[in-house]
Amino acid sequence: MGKVNVFIKHYYLDKAGEAPVIVEYTHNQKRWRINPDIKVDPKLIACIYDFDIEAYKLSALASLKPDQRTKIQVNNVLLQNMQAKFNAIVMSFKARSINPEVDYVKQEYQKGQIQVEAKSKTVAEHFAEFIKNKEREIGSGINSYRATWRHFEMFSDKMGLIFLEDLKRELLDNFRIYLKGTGLGGPSIHKHFKDFRIFLNWVKDNDENEQIQIPSAYKNLKLKVRYGDPIGLSVEQFMEFYNIDLSSSPELERTRDLIIFGVSIGGPRHGDLQRIGESLRRHGYNLNNTSITYFESKTGNAHKEIYVNKFGMEVLKKYDQFPYVPSNWRIRSA
């Protein structure tokens, strides 16, 4: 009968003092070893056989930091999935009266190896890959996705490991309730769920082998964007804001003028306003041309020949060179 063994290769330490974890299948004095790319410090972590789950697992020998404990949990899921796969193959061979030779088991195991690895990834691991990908695509716009993930991390802090298949209606409803309990309004909650849907759709789009299963609840969850009183200025408040004397604080005055200019062309996103400002500083602007064209960096939507109203023209006339657009946080805190 074939046997599965998991052990730490203590004598093969790297520069960080970590040793690889090896999964081994043996039968008739032949063996096949797999390196699942797991490394541990053998002074802190041991590999033991747990009779309750009937599988090998990693166990702490000393007190660990939270991130180290999470790493052990993730690795144990991977190891248990691998052992379960081996056991299922051996039992299948036994049912068909096939001798579970190493070469046969190896061939059968490698057919489903991609599926085992895909299922072992947590939502956190998938989101980390998503963030890295988006950093290359959109740069500064990544902060919105990072904020969504911070909220989800705080929401799920005491739930242990969460996998994609755990994202069912009840969990998502509880996440919505949590967001509302933090004091966020409807638009902000809608934004975070929109970001989360973008993340899950990205996972599905990059699953070339169609091995990852995600419950469909996230597609059907509807959130109202508008509830509560809208935030805005009346005409009188806008004119007061426009006419206030800020000459004693040039930085605040520039920030106010940038907000006025943004309003004059329809209120672009902060990142788009930064790109417009950079273009105007680099190429200059013609005061006789009262329109502007730009493309949204997040959606790619084109805004052609947008009319700059008199308030925006006043800002352009005021500066020889268009002011630098500070960070979104800086503008909001001004």
UniProtKB/TrEMBL annotation:
Pfam families: Phage_int_SAM_5 (PF13102)
Keywords of this entry: DNA-binding
Tagged with keyword DNA-binding: yes
All residue ranges annotated as the Phage integrase SAM-like domain in the record: 124-201
Superkingdom classification of source: Bacteria
Protein's UniProt name: Phage integrase SAM-like domain-containing protein
Top-level taxonomy: Bacteria, Pseudomonadati, Bacteroidota, Cytophagia, Cytophagales
